[in-house]
Amino acid sequence: MAGRWALVVAWMAIVFRVSSISDLGRAARVPDWISHPLEYAVGAVLVCRALEGGRRRPLTLSTALTATLLVTAYGVTDEYHQSFVPGRTADPMDVVKDLAGAAIAGTSYREWRRRQAAAGAPEPAR
Fold first, then answer.
1. Cα(first)–Cα(last) distance of the chain, in Å?
2. Nearest to 75, CA basis, from 25, 15, 2, 7
3. How far is CA 25 from CA 5, 8, 22, 31, in A?
4. CB contact at 8 A, 67 and 44
5. What value does the mean pLDDT take over residues 7-35?
6. Is the Cβ–Cβ distance between 63 and 78 less than 8 Å?
């Protein structure tokens, strides 16, 4: 279970590091309506996995919502962090994009786990 949380922390560190870069170069060409939802979708799946802790039952709605809210809260702190990085700005709409990606991923992960449990599929590797 600690490994699952280590992945969450690693994801957070990567997001923080990328947010610290003033000039993203070619990566800046990716529209933020694509990059933000994808970035926070990954975070939501990782947090869902960490919160479920390897249990062999479907992910609850409250757990998926908790993951979505935690990841979105991190998005808020990331925007605040960017306000101190030269060449970067804090944009509340980016948080909306973060929330969208996290919500879609959290609910999709929940549905995937529900189907796995219904099919009697083995538990994913820990």
1. 7
2. 15
3. 31, 26, 9, 13
4. yes
5. 91
6. no
Indicate whether 126 pLDDT > 70.
no
For every residue of 78-112, DSSP letters joined together read HHHHHTTSTT----HHHHHHHHHHHHHHHHHHHHH
Per residue in 25-49, pLDDT (tens digit) is 887 788 989 999 999 999 999 999 9
CA dihedral 12, 22, 78, 108 (to 10 degrees): -60
Grouping H, G, I as helix, E, B as strand and the rest as coil, residue 42 is helix
* The residue type at 68: T
Q: Please answer whether residues 18 and 81 qualify as being in contact, where contact means their C-beta atoms are separated by less than 8 angstroms.
A: no
Q: Which amino acid is at 81?
A: H
pTM above threshold 0.85: yes
User: Residue 85: left (phi > 0), alpha (psi -120 to 50), or beta?
Assistant: beta
Where residue 122 falls among pLDDT bands split at 50, 70, 90?
low
Count of CB atoms within 10 A of residue 2's CB? 6
Rg over alpha carbons for the chain, rounded to the nearest Å, is 16
